[in-house]
Amino acid sequence: MCFYVVKRPEGPCIVCSTKYSANCWYASSIARWGGDDMICAMSDQKYDSIAEIECRFLEIDKEGLIKRLLELGANDLGEKMLEEVIINDKEGHWTTDGKFIRIRTDGEKSSVSYKEHITHSIDGSTEIEIEINDPQKAEMIFEKVGLVPFRRQQKLRHSFVLDGVTFDIDTWPKIPTYVELEGESEQVLRDMAHKIGYDWNYAVFNNAGWIIEQKYNIPVRRMRWFTFDRVEL
């Protein structure tokens, strides 16, 4: 993976020297990024960086939703236990700023993501993700550069795709199951919510940490363990 922040749209990546072209991630991303900072990347690894357009519906009937999705012809991607390590800065400023690095493995593949929740809105989160081969070594690298593996957490996720919308049905420790919908626009998500029988007025645009803390009074962002067999500060 080669990536570098460049300030000018005409500037190449100074690491890989990729010019503005169809072969450069930067070229294909200008339309999606509204800021001055762009990332140019050339790699055979999977690399994603987008402002996520997503919403959640809380305390759902999991089996009822799965039945409805299958009736509509959704593609069932299966259910997996996600094991995650949340990386913070030593000073703890990232928690206040709504940002973190996450190492995730699902038993088949692993990834590292940078997540930033900017506003409580449908497109208020940004994620940059790459696939990795060795999550333990990734954790060691972050420690060596002064970051802190702060929390270990789990969630059970059952994923479906219907008409381009991803449904992640998430079960965390200690709270009721919710579903996250992610798609290309707010209107697409509104239409899909209506299609599955959900009232858009009940859509939630807060991230998982906010939901767990503010709705269920669990101080997850201060916890060191949030797994199905261990919940502790």
Identify the notable features of this structure and list them briefly.
single chain, alpha+beta, 2 domains, 11-stranded mixed beta sheet, two-stranded antiparallel ribbon, disordered N terminus
Topology:
Elements: E1 2-6, H1 25-29, E2 38-42, E3 47-52, E4 54-57, H2 62-71, E5 75-89, H3 93-97, E6 99-105, E7 110-117, E8 125-132, H4 135-144, E9 147-162, E10 165-171, E11 178-182, H5 186-195, H6 208-215, E12 225-227, E13 230-232
Parallel strand pairs: 9-12
Antiparallel strand pairs: 1-2, 3-8, 4-11, 5-6, 5-9, 6-7, 7-8, 9-10, 10-11, 12-13
Short description:
The chain is an alpha+beta fold and 233 residues long. It has six helices and 13 strands. A hairpin with a 6-residue loop joins strand 10 and strand 11.
Please explain how this structure is put together.
- With 233 residues, the protein is an alpha+beta fold.
- Helices cover 21% and strands 39% of the residues.
- The protein folds into 2 domains: 43 residues, no CATH class; 181 residues, Hypothetical Protein Pfu-838710-001 (Beta Barrel).
- The two termini are 35 Å apart.
- The N terminus is likely disordered.
User: Number of helical runs?
Assistant: 6
Give the overall pLDDT as a whole number: 84
Number of domains: 2
Order of helices and strands: EHEEEHEHEEEHEEEHHEE
